[in-house]
Amino acid sequence: MIGAAFAAGLLLAGCGDKKEARAQADAKAAGFVPPSVTSRLDYGSSMERRFRALDRNGDDKIGKDELPARNAPRLQALDRNKDGEISAIEFSEGMLARFDAMDLNHDGTVTTEERQASRKR
């Protein structure tokens, strides 16, 4: 009888470990982001589309009223001539400079690992 109770306890303990391991694996899977590689060309094209989306009045400039509130300070830093507007050239050159800063091995692509490392810096 004692042996059976001991064996049942081991089985239950084993189930708990499996359930815990399963819960940890599920949590890890839920937060999974597949690795990516972005080329400088693709990034530049993406940023061109972003500029066009932000330039709501189509004047090839992003004015203060067109800046998204949460990114405004970071985007205003792209205004090199400090005229209060971000031109298409200022935006493009600034965003490509950010890409180049993320491209840690200077191979023309940014991987997930490089992106994460640049965020930590």
Automatic annotation (TrEMBL):
**InterPro entries registered for this protein in UniProt:** EF-hand-dom_pair, EF_Hand_1_Ca_BS, EF_hand_dom
In terms of Pfam families, this protein maps to: EF-hand_5
Query: Which ranges carry the EF-hand domain?
Result: 50-67, 75-93, 99-114
Provide the GO MF annotations for this entry: calcium ion binding
Highest taxon listed in the record's lineage? Bacteria
Record-given protein name: EF-hand domain-containing protein
